[in-house]
Amino acid sequence: MTGPLVVAIVLSHERPDRTVACLRSLRSSLYPNLEVVVLDTGQAPGSADDIGRAFPGTEIVALEGNRGYAGGNNTGLALALRRRADWALLVNDDVTVAADCLSRLVECGESERRIGMVGPTVHHRDEPRVIQSAGGYLEPDWSASFLAADEPDRGQLREPRDVAWLSGCALLVRLELYEQIGPLDERFFCYWEDVDWCLRAHRYGWRVVHEPAARAWHEGGRTGSAPHPAVAYYTTRNHLLALGKHGAPLRVRLVAARRLGTTLLVWSVRPSLRSRRAARTAMWQGVADFALGRFGERPSTGRGRSE
């Protein structure tokens, strides 16, 4: 094999058909030195058998329950480190990648020693030519937003560039970085753990780079669509957690508090936004749980999403 060893970690959650599609794209990868490991959360009974029938010989590791995106991928990262891999590719089960995606990510990462994370241009799966994410940035209240979100891909992104953070749905991570900055913070459970990880990488002097020539496709709604209550809960609580963890200045906290308060008020009183009231209730729960120091999986649901 040529090239550094990459271990792809696929966190399989509730739909084995999605995992099969993800594995099919990884099996078509042009990168020669790739190992694939599926981590099965056990949320879909029989999923490991379904995946095994579709791809005989695939390594499937059973997790002890659902530990969210952070906990599941931490298991995979530790496994990749034991195998002396150079890089780990974190891939959500609802992601597919282009055949040359990994080759381009590795080429970018290997071009400079201080590049610790590399991410592709992620497109909407149901609109394959529309960008979902080209890396991310922090707004004045330190909320996390995608660059180029919902823009038609006309080739406007040409050169690799440093970004504040990368989506964890498809993320190549140098394992030397993982050893230095530590694992994903499992308090987040899902949502914001990728942002937190990237911010920690920056603090240690690592570069976080978007490689536009690498392409992936991810399920998910467009910006502006009504959030699922679970998403509203985790993004609210975990944003507040990140503000405290990373020492946000008072001015940032004030902007964040004003924006959160405005959203809760508008979603409560505007008739046209009644469809968002379940999300509003979930946001209130997120604020309360942050204040009470309740982290990890959302207590009232017994379930969580992988990303």
Notes on the structure:
With 307 residues, the chain is an alpha/beta fold. It has 2 domains: 6-218, Spore Coat Polysaccharide Biosynthesis Protein SpsA, Chain A (Alpha-Beta Complex), CATH 3.90.550.60; 229-292. The chain has helices at residues 16-27, 47-54, 68-82, 101-110, 175-181, 193-203, 229-245, 250-269, 277-292, and strands at 6-12, 34-40, 59-62, 87-92, 95-97, 115-124, 127-133, 136-138, 144-146, 161-162, 170-174, 207-218. The strands form 2 sheets. Strands 1, 2, 3, 4, 5, 6, 7, 10, 11 and 12 form a 10-stranded mixed sheet that branches. Strand 2, helix 2 (47-54) and strand 3 form a beta-alpha-beta unit.
Topology:
Layout: E1 6-12, H1 16-27, E2 34-40, H2 47-54, E3 59-62, H3 68-82, E4 87-92, E5 95-97, H4 101-110, E6 115-124, E7 127-133, E8 136-138, E9 144-146, E10 161-162, E11 170-174, H5 175-181, H6 193-203, E12 207-218, H7 229-245, H8 250-269, H9 277-292
Parallel strand pairs: 1-2, 1-4, 2-3, 6-12
Antiparallel strand pairs: 4-11, 5-12, 6-7, 6-11, 8-9, 10-12
Summary of the model, kept short:
The protein has two domains: 6-218, Spore Coat Polysaccharide Biosynthesis Protein SpsA, Chain A (Alpha-Beta Complex), CATH 3.90.550.60; 229-292. 38% of the residues lie in helices and 22% in strands.
